[in-house]
């Protein structure tokens, strides 16, 4: 498989972020290997897609489609964890997949497929033991390391299956478990179809700033959130999945915050955060369904939050307090409001008014 060009990037992991800007840069580190790993993981995911899915319109997660997703998940995470183990051997990792599951739950032919994909893409000899070791790298240091990486090997499973939007996300938490860095490959960015073409983008934080470049290599540009203020020009992005948030309640909040005429777009994956960061969208919200006890997983949000903050946007809980990544795999936050900044306070106020009204009527 052809190798792609890699551009340099420096990330400062131990910095305090304030309004998207770093306060004091310490311990610069080169993230070239992580950028390369994100690109290689995207190549693996595309390879699995084009060899496994016959239709670009399938959206169901029936048994026939779970196996390719599993293969791509394990392969993508193995590539990323391998790069982290080589470049940052003392760091901790939170990630979805586990080595014992790969070794004991996967069918022999699927393990063999993962190993073969890794052999081809990494151009090294890979064994099953290698994959198990990479998948579990850094998990024994959770809560003890100065840096913690948070990986979602494929965010947006149904988008992956339907060959729409999905993301490969690698977030970074500092010693205070604050989101200070992120790398996000978005193979479906541009045309919404994750095919073998010139579309797709790589987003990342470098020196406290957010950047975007073509996934297949090219010039990097610094990105900033939108400054749009007119309601009719505002673009709201939200998940396809009804189980992820209460869309009716969010519609009420949008209207009360003055966004009656805003365009609402349903789309897959953490790429929504990238669209806030680069100004193509303005608002992303998560208000849970009434009575829901579902908690947000940190790997679904760390990379995106870091990207938005570095670009100059805002990301908070529903009451305007910080998003927290201090509780293991789960976030303690009730929900989230992520914006360019323009309508953020209005959305917090409208959300709090809704929650107060609901508590008084219950």
Class per helix and strand makeup:
alpha+beta
Question: What is the architecture of the largest domain at the second tier of CATH?
Answer: 2-Layer Sandwich
Rg of Cα set: 20 Å
What strand line-up does the widest sheet have? Answer: 5-6-7-8-9-10-11
Distance between the termini: 59 Å
CATH homologous superfamily caption of the largest domain: Fructose-1,6-Bisphosphatase, subunit A, domain 1
Poorly predicted ranges (pLDDT <50, ≥5 residues)?
1-26, 54-65
Largest beta-sheet details: 7 strands, mixed
Q: What is the count of structural domains?
A: 2
CATH fold-level topology of the largest domain: Fructose-1,6-Bisphosphatase, Chain A, domain 1
Number of strands: 16
Write down the secondary-structure element order: EEEEHHEHHHEHEEEEEEHEHEHEEH
CATH class of the largest domain: Alpha Beta
By DSSP (H or I, 4+ residues per run), the number of helices equals 10
Share of helical residues: 25-40%
Mean pLDDT across all amino acids = 87
Shape: globular
Strand content: 15-25%
Protein model, in words:
The structure is a single chain. With 362 residues, the chain is of the alpha+beta class. It has helices at residues 32-52, 63-87, 99-104, 108-122, 128-136, 157-161, 247-256, 271-277, 302-311, 344-361, and strands at residues 10-11, 16-18, 21-23, 29-30, 92-95, 148-155, 167-173, 179-186, 201-206, 209-214, 221-222, 235-239, 263-267, 283-286, 314-316, 336-339. It is 35% helix and 20% strand. α1 runs antiparallel to α2 and α2 packs across α4. It has two domains: 10-222, Fructose-1,6-Bisphosphatase, Chain A, domain 1 (2-Layer Sandwich), CATH 3.30.540.10; 231-361, D-Maltodextrin-Binding Protein, domain 2. It starts with 9 loop residues before the first strand and ends with a helix. The relative contact order is 0.13. The protein is built from ten helices and 16 strands. A seven-stranded mixed beta sheet has the order 5-6-7-8-9-10-11, sandwiched between helices. It has a five-stranded mixed beta sheet with strand order 13-12-14-16-15, sandwiched between helices. A two-stranded antiparallel ribbon has the order 1-4. Residues 1-26 and 54-65 have low confidence and may be disordered.
């Amino acid at each position: 498989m052809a190798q792609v060009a890699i551009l340099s990037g420096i990330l400062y992991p131990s910095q305090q972020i304030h309004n998207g800007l770093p306060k004091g840069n310490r311990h610069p580190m080169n993230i070239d290997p992580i950028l390369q790993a994100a690109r290689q993981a995207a190549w693996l995911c595309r390879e699995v897609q084009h060899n496994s899915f016959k239709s670009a319109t399938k959206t169901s997660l029936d048994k026939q489609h779970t196996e390719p997703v599993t293969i791509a998940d394990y392969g993508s995470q193995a590539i990323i964890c391998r790069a982290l183990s080589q470049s940052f051997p003392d760091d901790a990792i939170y990630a979805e997949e586990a080595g014992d599951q790969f070794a004991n739950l996967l069918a022999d032919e699927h393990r063999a497929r993962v190993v073969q994909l890794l052999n081809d893409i990494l151009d090294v000899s890979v064994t099953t033991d290698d994959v198990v070791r990479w998948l579990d790298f850094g998990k024994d240091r959770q809560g003890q390391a100065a840096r913690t990486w948070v990986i979602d090997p494929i965010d947006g499973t149904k988008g992956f299956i339907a060959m729409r939007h999905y993301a490969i996300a690698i977030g970074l938490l500092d010693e205070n478990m604050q989101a200070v860095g992120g790398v996000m490959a978005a193979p479906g960015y541009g045309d919404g179809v994750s095919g073998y073409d010139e579309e797709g983008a790589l987003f990342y934080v470098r020196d406290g700033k957010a950047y975007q470049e073509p996934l297949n290599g090219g010039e990097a540009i610094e990105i900033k959130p939108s400054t749009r203020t007119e309601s009719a020009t505002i673009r709201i992005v939200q998940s396809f999945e009804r189980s992820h948030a209460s869309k009716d309640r969010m519609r009420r909040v949008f209207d009360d915050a003055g966004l009656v005429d805003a365009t609402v777009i349903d789309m897959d994956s953490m790429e929504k955060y990238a669209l806030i960061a680069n100004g193509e969208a303005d608002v992303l919200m998560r208000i849970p369904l009434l009575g829901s006890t579902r908690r947000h997983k940190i790997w679904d949000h760390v990379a995106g939050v870091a990207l938005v903050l570095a670009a100059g946007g805002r990301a908070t809980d529903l009451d305007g307090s910080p998003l927290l990544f201090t509780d293991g795999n789960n976030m303690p936050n009730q929900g989230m409001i992520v914006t360019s900044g323009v309508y953020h306070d209005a959305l917090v106020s409208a959300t709090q008014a809704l929650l107060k009204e609901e508590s008084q009527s219950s």
